[in-house]
Amino acid sequence: MNTSLILLLILIVGFAAYLAGRSRAIATSNGKLSVLHSLPGYHGTYAAICAIIPATIVLAVWAIAAPAYIDSAVRNALPQTVLSQGAATSELALGQVKSVANGLNLLDDAELAALNNGSANLRDVLAAKGVPLAGEGEAYMVKSAAQFNQMTATSRVLMAVVVLLISAAGAVFALRGISAPFRARNQVERVMLWTLMLASSIAILTTIGIVGSMLSEAIRFFNSVSPASFFFGTVWDPRFAAAGSEATQGQFGLLPLLAGTLYIAFVAMLFAVPIGLFAAIYMSEYARPGVRSIAKPLLEILAGIPTIVYGFFALVTVGPFLRDISAQLNGLVTGNYVSFIQAQSVLTAGIVMGIMLIPFVSSLSDDIITQVPRALRDGSLGLGATRSETIKKVVLPAALPGIVGALLLTASRAVGETMIVVLAAGVAARMQLNPFEAMTTVTVKIVNQLTGDLEFNSPQTLVAFALGITLFCITLCLNIYALYIVRKYREQYE
Amino acid sequence: MTEIVSSSSPAFVRPTAARRDIGIKRRYAAERRFRAYGMAAIVIGLFFLFVLLWTVISNGYTAFQQTTITLPIEFAEKVIDPKNERAANPSKLMTANYPLLVRDALVKALGIDPKNRAEVKKATEMVSASARMQLRDIVIANPSVIGTTVNVSLLAEGNIDSANKGQIDLAVEESKRKVSDQKIGWMKTLTDSGAMTKEFNTGIFTFGASSRPEAAGIGVAALGSLYMMLIVLALALPIGVAASIYLEEFAPKNRLTDLIEVNINNLAAVPSIVYGLLGLSIFINFAGMPRSAALVGGLVLTLMTLPTIIIATRAALKAVPPSIRSAALGLGASKMQTIFHHVLPLAMPGVLTGTIIGLAHALGETAPLLLIGMVAFVVDYPGSPMEPSTALPVQIYMWANEAERAFVERTSGAIIILLIFLVVMNLGAILLRRRFERRW
């Protein structure tokens, strides 16, 4: 009996308990519902909760714990010769035993008997059933596999019986407790409150999961590569040690990637901030409501376009355009039609990312500028300042902290952006200052190191987690600081 | 200062305009410039939006047409099943020499000498290699077709398709062009005889991954995306709503809830690729879920969407006026009843709007999916969320890396489809808000 079937049975028991509880509550009231403390539905729900929740918890624990227990029992029962060869060998043997066990389930009695008296070859018999076996099977494996199968079957049956019994017991307990003064609603609401709390703790769990998982993988990485050579290394060259050659480890220097990330983010901000800020100022201070109601949503479309589309735009349009126009410019000036901007370059990635960021800058700043109290503007205009003077000398200084916060939030997006740089920035990790050349970023390298069939334990893949936690820390600092500024500023005028 | 002195003196002289010049002209010019900058910024922003959409649409609208070559295919028994074994061994039909059927029909239609090997080979290049599978499926579905002649629409090869749509510049020197003059002549023959036509491309909606652009489609990827969206909806909406109800209505104001608040705001701004790392390390390596599965993708996107939904739901709950709560409590409802019977239903339009926007965001997200192995060459429809699948934006990413002209067209076509989905979702959210949102 598999787990989902059991779960279904529990739910059926729960539903039955609900119906029974409700009708029992109605029966208890003798036709006068007002004598009940809680409505019949709550009594029913309480019965269903008693039937479902403890049983489900036991089911989950059993489903997780039983395989682990069986594994260790079977492993301990392996012959002494295998166990004495260390953990890796016994782990391998256990894997083989499991696939043998899988195969044994497909055999009929005659074949099993032939296996047991040694007249048939294990590997051939299993191969005939479509179960491939790595290496020659050994005699002890059949015994271990039989043990494994038997334990698994016992565990399954036991689990089904125990869980269903608990479910039934829960239902009976709840149904027996139904009486007119019983506070079923309070009980149900307490369970609901716990459920709500559990849901809100998922946010915390996600953060713990992010930090914990990346930290543990990063620590494994730092076991083979020293943190100093990662954080202060200037060469990124994660070579693979070819089979048989001297194991060259490769160099994992963070600095070239960080330089590329910050450079591209800087170019993007250089592009997005003036446009976004002026757009926000115009929309909040000058534009008629009609213009604003059209221009604002149109600009915000830019924020809704998936970043992969921007990446494609950079790859197909902006990159080739910059390359061709630089060739033309070069040709006009020097007569030599060679492009000096590469199709994949800091400039391409920066411009396209800048386009993506325009709506972030503009709508965040727009919100902040409109929060500046009317009185400040009126005072300035009343003293004879023009509108632009009011904006430059009164509104912007008042809004400045908020705008800085908004820009920091935007910068954190630029640093963490992936798809645009994957397609537009190139993969060459180098430290240089020419914006017309390709550079690469932290996010590009995370993608590069983790796509493809790699063994998970090598530093080549684990470095992605070290890069990830670096990225997480940078954006976290930017976000926390930005949110702090924005919040503090908002309080000033409220 | 002189003005002040003179105006306060009894002999008041009205100051001339020249003396009162406080740079009004200069200041007004600055005002106009400032205003122009603002307008220019908006125009530049809209210009980029226009260029972006124009690039995608102009590159992509042709992807919805596909050149086909309709040939009378003779399903000759001596080619498909020369030894007449199909009754005994149906798998023979799987491996029969179908390309030969195409070749024969094409040679006949073009009037080429069948003995001229080189020319015959060139001519068969014009038909997509997927024709083999197409004919095989016809024969296997209906073996009685063997021995008859049927008109079959075959896909034209990618470059021929591009040339037929006028995307290959024929003025370029022949050696630098993907399509030779000879093939162009043949194309003309086929077009004149009515065999080569452009038809609405249903393949782009139904096919899976393929290394041949003409046989590549987004069907499989779209199904993967659908699975993920369903998982996100089924998990993120209830969890998000439950979490926001707790935080907004029940949570005591203390350190812990403050921490959760800051936390949620931060999670909303964490780079999406970090969620991919989380998924890889926890769901795949720790929990042992399969790589490339829509289930893992759905879980990762759920975690990513949760903060958006929580923030939107809390705003919606906050917007329900306290009088509703007081009225319900005053009539004897418990706090739980007040919230679930009165506050939540009134906040629902806002919640759903936030959910749809979160879903739209999740639908376009690519980076985390790359890390959990969804960059996969998936040809067949995944039967369940546990099977290997890919997603719409990931398919776009994979096609964007292909060099051929025909793939640029396919990529743009897929982007158009993705954008249409997003527009529909966002419009739905806006309509929902307009129709149901109440202002108190």
UniProtKB/TrEMBL annotation, chain A:
The chain crosses the membrane at residues 41-65, 157-179, 191-211, 218-236, 256-281, 301-321, 341-361, 394-415, 462-486. The keyword Transmembrane applies. It is found in: Cell inner membrane; Cell membrane. Residues 258-482 form the ABC transmembrane type-1 domain. It comes from the Bacteria. InterPro entries: MetI-like (IPR000515), MetI-like_sf (IPR035906), Phosphate_PstC (IPR011864), PstC_N (IPR022182). It is a multi-pass membrane protein. It holds the Pfam family BPD_transp_1. Keywords: Cell inner membrane, Cell membrane, Membrane, Phosphate transport, Transmembrane, Transmembrane helix, Transport. Belongs to the binding-protein-dependent transport system permease family. CysTW subfamily. Part of the binding-protein-dependent transport system for phosphate; probably responsible for the translocation of the substrate across the membrane. This is Phosphate transport system permease protein. It comes from Rhizobium herbae.
From TrEMBL, chain B:
It comes from the Bacteria. The keyword Transmembrane helix applies. Residues 222-428 form the ABC transmembrane type-1 domain. Keywords: Cell membrane, Membrane, Transmembrane, Transmembrane helix, Transport. It holds the Pfam family BPD_transp_1. Signal peptide: none annotated. It is a multi-pass membrane protein. It is found in: Cell inner membrane; Cell membrane. The chain crosses the membrane at residues 36-57, 226-247, 267-287, 293-317, 338-363, 413-432. Belongs to the binding-protein-dependent transport system permease family. CysTW subfamily. This is Phosphate transport system permease protein PstA. The lineage of its organism: Bacteria, Pseudomonadati, Pseudomonadota, Alphaproteobacteria, Hyphomicrobiales. The gene is pstA.
